[in-house]
């Protein structure tokens, strides 16, 4: 993708309104947390303390809107404590460049490395850098430092208390994640009616699994309905694929295909009803016709063989989904099982036991080629350079420049640039709005404080609709907050705009100077996915060779690893498509073809898994030889893909050639899916097998194709391609 097109996509993304469900009650409660600390501080103490209280309450409240599965009150308390600590340390170092600049560098590096723990940790850590920067404008005595730090921590405590006293939709995010997983399987069932080989994106199931991990305290109060249905969705998915597949399931035409479509449609209705029930916590209606379809007539059933088995298994599983939909799930107060059943829960470490996890995650990212490490280095450079530049300018709030840089920067190119655009646009709109209001109402500390709370409420309401729109009211909030302290808008508004532009420009420049492009890493991500898929397919085959509970557990472990590798590939591929970098190792078309081939390989393994015999069932010793060949060939092919060599499937071909005749006929499903896997691997080899000259020519042709598409779009003659 060219730089011009990349920047156009950045502007479009930065100003896009995201379609999401607003949560006004949550926004109102969080804004109330700001009000109950700002009001008393403004009335009883001073505007300076009110500003500190507002900093803690606003930032702690914003942290609770991040996507996390930990209790919101814990996030609020943690954010408040981090802001208070960084404020206190900043007070001690403020006043002298020789002490403050090294502290700022260390704090920025730590905030950047916090992304190793996830986006929520990275965003909250970035706010602590902002609080560190704000302290340079406040008194520097140790006593005042403790007072302001305490007031900031009080803002986090206030938010946590409101969450505890006024719970809004407890376990709502967890319910949504589980409901989304069931709805995704329902949508897949509908697509299988028209496309029997439609692929499935496992991302909703992965999110639901992540949401299912709980701490011991959460396990004691988690609704029972949030435990079982996730496994139900996992079991239904391969059965749906097995029923719809024309090779091992229902026939491609005739009454059998019509019957399969009826069952798939009924499954979609039942799963949608179960999803609604879990999301709302109330019984959901299931169309009467769907329940009638889910009956297997022993005498008149048209499905036979593996298709009949899949239909019977689907009806059994959907009976559980029907029970969930009609009962409305368990009540929110239902306790989780204790004793041995507790071991079935996915365990999330408590905050006190998180330290070893943090150390290991950070240690893993401490390498030069890590996007997280490079993000931390960019944060250090931009924060310190922005502070030095702004301190030399004739402005009174120089910390706005480095703070803008820190808040917009992300480990990837597209998000950093899009947020920089969104922050500048939101700041311009917000300061213009706030300026007009101040001019109309006149300066008054109490009025400004009230308007700051209203702006905070609007910012929280729009926080998930797009960064620019939330930032608009955040900028207005800051203007009103400064006005509450007696500063005229003529001083603050121009400074805010200029310094935001400076900070955003530094953030964008930093990524150009020290980038972390995903494009060159695509072959490695593809190799990881290929190796993980090979282990998953081999685990499934070993389930046929020796049907035991241990092999089923290995199958599940390998499936999860395969999904994680696929998610890492998809994230890298999506980022690479938005980067202004010439393809290296894989062109966009080659990457797309390789992705489609591995998706088909995944699907064949999933179909094979749907027919694995239960523990103690009939074994197929020949499947072990194929498993060993498949695992060895995919492991070697992963190395070949990394080194840009052509992969080879000699062991798999030799094993399949030997597995002919009567032995292969005993396992038609395994044999058929193994052939499909081999074809998928051959397509993968075709996609990535290129001589160096062919690869260079392919990259050049792709660049010409993209340029032509962009020119056509600019001329209005056709749409631009979205692949890079």
UniProtKB/TrEMBL annotation:
It is a multi-pass membrane protein. Residues 1-12 form the PH domain. Keywords: Cell membrane, Membrane, Transmembrane, Transmembrane helix. Signal peptide: none annotated. It holds the Pfam family FUSC_2. The chain crosses the membrane at residues 21-42, 74-94, 148-168, 376-400, 420-438, 468-485, 497-517. Belongs to the YccS/YhfK family. This is Membrane protein. It comes from Streptomyces roseus.
């Amino acid at each position: 993708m060219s730089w011009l097109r990349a920047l156009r996509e950045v502007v479009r993304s930065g100003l896009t309104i995201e379609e999401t469900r607003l949560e006004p009650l949550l926004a109102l409660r969080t804004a109330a947390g700001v009000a109950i600390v700002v009001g008393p501080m403004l009335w009883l103490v001073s505007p300076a303390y009110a500003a500190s209280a507002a900093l803690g309450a606003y930032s702690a409240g914003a942290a609770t809107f991040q996507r996390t599965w930990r209790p919101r009150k814990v996030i609020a308390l943690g954010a408040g404590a981090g802001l208070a600590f960084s404020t206190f340390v900043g007070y001690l170092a403020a006043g002298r460049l020789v002490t403050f600049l090294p502290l700022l560098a260390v704090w920025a590096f730590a905030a950047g490395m916090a992304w190793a723990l996830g986006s929520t940790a990275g965003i909250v850590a970035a706010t602590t850098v902002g609080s560190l920067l704000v302290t340079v404008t406040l008194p520097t005595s140790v006593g005042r430092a403790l007072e302001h730090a305490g007031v900031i921590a009080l803002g986090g405590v206030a938010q946590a208390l409101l969450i505890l006293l006024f719970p809004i939709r407890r376990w709502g995010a967890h319910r949504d994640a589980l409901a989304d997983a069931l709805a995704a399987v329902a949508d897949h069932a509908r697509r299988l009616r028209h496309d029997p080989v439609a692929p499935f994106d496992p991302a909703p199931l992965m999110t639901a699994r992540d949401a299912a991990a709980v701490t011991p305290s959460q396990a004691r109060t988690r609704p029972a309905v949030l435990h079982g249905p996730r496994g139900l969705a996992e079991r239904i998915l391969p059965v749906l694929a097995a029923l719809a597949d024309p090779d091992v399931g229902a026939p491609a035409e005739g009454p059998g295909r019509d019957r399969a479509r009826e069952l798939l449609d009924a499954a979609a209705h039942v799963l949608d009803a179960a999803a609604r029930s879990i999301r709302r916590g109330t019984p959901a209606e299931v169309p009467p016709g769907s329940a009638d379809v889910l009956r297997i007539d022993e005498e008149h059933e048209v499905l036979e063989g593996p298709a009949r088995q899949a239909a019977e298994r689907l009806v059994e599983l959907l009976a559980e989904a029907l029970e969930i939909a009609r009962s409305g799930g368990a009540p929110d107060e239902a306790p989780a099982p204790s004793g041995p059943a507790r071991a079935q829960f996915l365990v999330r470490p408590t905050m006190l036991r998180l330290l070893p996890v943090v150390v290991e995650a950070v240690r893993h990212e401490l390498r030069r080629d890590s996007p997280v490490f490079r993000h931390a280095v960019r944060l250090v450079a931009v924060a310190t350079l922005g502070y030095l530049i702004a301190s030399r300018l004739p402005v009174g709030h120089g910390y706005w420049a480095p703070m803008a840089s820190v808040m917009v920067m992300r480990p990837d190119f597209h998000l950093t640039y899009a947020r920089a655009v969104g922050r500048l646009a939101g700041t311009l709109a917000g300061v213009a709005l706030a300026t007009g209001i101040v001019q109309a109402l006149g300066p008054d500390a109490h009025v400004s404080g009230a308007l700051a709370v209203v702006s905070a409420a609007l910012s929280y309401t729009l926080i998930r609709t797009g960064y620019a729109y939330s930032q608009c009211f955040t900028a207005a909030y800051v203007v009103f907050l400064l006005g509450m302290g007696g500063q005229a808008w003529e001083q603050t508004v121009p400074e805010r705009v200029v310094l935001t532009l400076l900070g955003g420009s530094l953030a964008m420049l930093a990524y150009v100077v020290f980038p972390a492009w995903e494009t060159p890493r695509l072959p490695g991500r593809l190799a990881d996915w290929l190796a993980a898929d090979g282990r998953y397919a081999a685990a499934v085959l070993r389930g046929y060779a020796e049907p035991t509970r241990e092999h089923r557990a290995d199958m599940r472990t390998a499936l999860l690893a395969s999904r994680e590798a696929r998610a890492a590939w998809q994230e890298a591929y999506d980022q690479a498509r938005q980067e202004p970098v010439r393809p290296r190792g894989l062109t966009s078309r080659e990457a797309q073809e390789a992705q489609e081939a591995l998706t088909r390989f995944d699907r064949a393994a999933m179909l094979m898994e749907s027919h694995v015999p239960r523990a103690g069932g009939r074994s197929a010793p020949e499947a072990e030889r194929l498993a060993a060949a498949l695992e060895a060939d995919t492991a070697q092919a992963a190395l070949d893909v990394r080194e840009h060599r052509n992969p080879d499937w000699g062991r798999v071909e030799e094993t399949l050639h030997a597995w002919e005749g009567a032995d292969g006929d005993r396992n038609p499903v395994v044999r058929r899916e193994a052939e499909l896997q081999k074809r998928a691997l051959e397509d993968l080899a075709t996609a990535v097998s290129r001589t160096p000259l062919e690869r260079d020519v392919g990259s050049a042709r792709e660049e010409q194709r993209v340029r032509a598409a962009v020119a056509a779009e600019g001329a209005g003659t056709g749409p631009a391609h979205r692949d890079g």
